[in-house]
Design a protein that fits this description.
Blueprint (H helix, E strand, L loop, with lengths): L12 E4 L9 H28 L6 H30 L3 E3 H34 L4 H4 L2 H19 L1 H7 L8 E2 L6 H7 L5 H34 L4 H11 L1
Parallel strand pairs: 1-3
Antiparallel strand pairs: 1-2
Helix pairs in contact: 1-2, 2-3, 3-5, 3-6, 3-8
The protein binds 2-acetamido-2-deoxy-beta-D-glucopyranose (NAG).
Length: 244
């Protein structure tokens, strides 16, 4: 509670406590986190490097995969280094602004991830249900536009989140029972009416992740529909290859 200041509406720093109840095991829990983080860095960077250097991979699917890898790198680099520092050095203190930045980056980039999954599903849908026009529909300009739209959607819908938290009073405590700063974790410790803020965040979550999920399911239903209505067995197995 050191940085907690009664004259201020919000404390200048928050304290992340990691995984509540498992403080004693933090050092052990940090090992898989660290290994998986390093593997994610290595995997995503190799992916970016390979796709960049191999011109035969400059196809819609792989371009969306690159965008996904960048979003993945941002999300895990926003959360994990701070988490490791908390686990290793008991350094749970995080400045208010840094905390809000974490909220924004984690939520906006995970929203973008879901958009990139939807874009990939759309690519497969066109490749299978309209194969002859695939390259005419998914030109580089269209792919760039879709990527930009996904980034803008994530940024626009999630940028209110830090402001919704910024103007809340945190009069009870500055301790966050979580491993990183997250919207609902902060809402929980605020001492004010937060119903509208919660509703906004739930609506945004539905309009992004929820809607993307439904549309991805639809794309697979349409793909299966196409595959099972193909005239010959030959064409069907050909399609199953594309589907993979
Ligand atoms: C990229 O990073 C994410 C974590 O943010 C991880 O889940 C994914 O497996 C990584 N991709 C590769 C190819 O390693």
């Amino acid at each position: 509670m050191s940085a907690y200041n009664k004259t201020n509406v919000h404390p200048s720093t928050f304290i992340l406590i990691g995984i509540p109840g498992l403080e004693a095991a933090h050092i052990w829990i940090s090992i898989p986190f660290c290994v998986v983080y390093l593997l994610a860095l290595l995997g995503n960077c190799s992916l970016l490097f390979i796709i960049k250097t191999d011109p035969s991979l400059h196809e819609p699917m792989y371009l969306f995969l690159c965008m996904l890898a960048v979003a993945d790198l941002v999300v895990c680099t926003t959360a994990v280094p701070k988490l490791l520092s908390l686990f290793w050095f008991h350094d749970g203190e995080i400045r208010f602004e840094a905390c809000l930045t974490q909220v924004f980056l984690i939520h906006s980039c995970s929203t973008m991830e879901s958009g990139f999954f939807l874009a990939m599903a759309f690519d497969r849908y066109v490749a299978i249900c309209n194969p002859l026009r695939h390259s005419a529909i998914l030109t580089h300009a269209v792919i760039g536009g879709m990527g930009l739209a996904i980034v803008l959607r994530g940024t626009a819908l999630l940028s209110p989140h830090p402001f919704l938290l910024r103007w809340l009073p945190y009069c009870r405590t500055n301790i966050i029972s979580h491993t990183y700063c997250e919207f609902m974790a902060l809402i929980k410790i605020a001492c004010a009416e937060t119903r509208i803020r919660r509703a906004y965040s739930l609506i945004v979550a539905f309009l992004t992740g929820g809607l993307d999920f439904i549309l991805i399911i639809c794309s697979y239903v349409l793909i299966l529909h196409t595959v099972f209505h193909l005239p010959s067995k030959d064409a069907r197995s050909h399609c199953m290859i594309l589907f993979k």
